[in-house]
Amino acid sequence: AISHQQNIFEGMNIRYFGPFDGHDVKNIVRVLRQLKDMKGPKLLHLHTKKGKGYKPAEAAATIWHAPGKFDPETGERIVDDTSNRPPKYQDVFGETLLELARSNPRIVGVTPAMPTGCSMNILAKEMPDRMFDVGIAEGHAVTFSGGMAKDGLQPFCNIYSAFSQRAYDNIIHDLAILNLPVVLCLDRAGIVGEDGPTHHGAFDMAALRPIPNLTIASPMDEHELRRLMYTAQLPDKGTFVIRYPRGRGVLTDWRCKLEEVQVGTGRRLHEGRDVAVLTIGPIGNDVKKIIEELESIPDTSLSPTSQHLSPSIAHYDMRFLKPLDDLLLSEVAANFNRIVTIEDGTRKGGLGSAVLEWMNDNGFHPEITRLGMPDEFVEHGTVEQLKQLCGLDRESIKRAILKAIH
After folding, report:
1. What pLDDT, on the 0 to 100 scale, is given for residue 309?
2. What is the rounded distance in angstroms from the CA atom of residue 379 to the CA atom of residue 386?
3. Is pLDDT above 60 for 290?
4. By CB distance 3.0 to 4.6 Å, which of 11, 22, 294, 373 could disulfide with 46?
């Protein structure tokens, strides 16, 4: 038996027991009772089969990892008709990656065990020799990508935002220091919903912003995602981070011409007088609708001497967290003494903090309201429930903007 041979765990003075059948509950209980009072580190090795006991899940483990609603009697999955709805960001990523790979032979894809979760299986189906699934090893995925980039390839390394935390050292040492041309795509950025505190992509912007040589961007919609992906694989772009959320985008007509976006530039989406709202990423779509709503309703709380009866709100899509758009921020600083920043990430250290720093460093002192995820681990729930919990739902954002004006 393997347990009687020298192995890596015994070599580290960790007592090793197994392998045992992980579905033999009575035997596992017996073994656990024997081990519970044993002193020192110990490792229990169990063999299990994913989906054991439910034939549909045993036959298709990947699909049944997160099957959604289904009929337990027949195993039939209840899938909604999504033909007229915008695509998921991950599918836009997967389709665009294949499109880019067809025209750029240097492009390869790397994923740590999430080819279907990030839609890199689209590339794998047509170009199996150019997609590498390295298993659940995020640090290795980054270093492996860096090695291929050093040898002249252009890797797109797709990792869920929360799990990229495991590769923080690798991003710094094996990509950023060498400024290697790797596109790090962080899927599931921001609030993810029912997967809970282990899966929310809360910290990527705050964690990566201090690292030299990184470009950090977040697209507001599917067109922006495609253009940023195209931009990131152009020559001399270095290490390029693109973050986007779980779930669907906002455009049904999502295919667009692939054009370069000038690195470090944002966009003025809406003119205004009373307050400037600065957003990054798809939460900007919510803010766009909120501003339309607020400006269409007369605000009786404004001063009678005010020249306009409803609030006038400027909206800027920052697009890049790093480098920040100096010209855009200079415009904001020159025209507004009230600013609201909104981001789907931790409030501490992200866009709001970056804008505060920029204003202070450049001698401006506006009143800045920062909205983002709180300084706590956010529990599980629907995305809408969690947005309310974090003060990022429409009503909370609306109140924050009106409060900033008054």
Report:
1. 72
2. 8
3. yes
4. 22
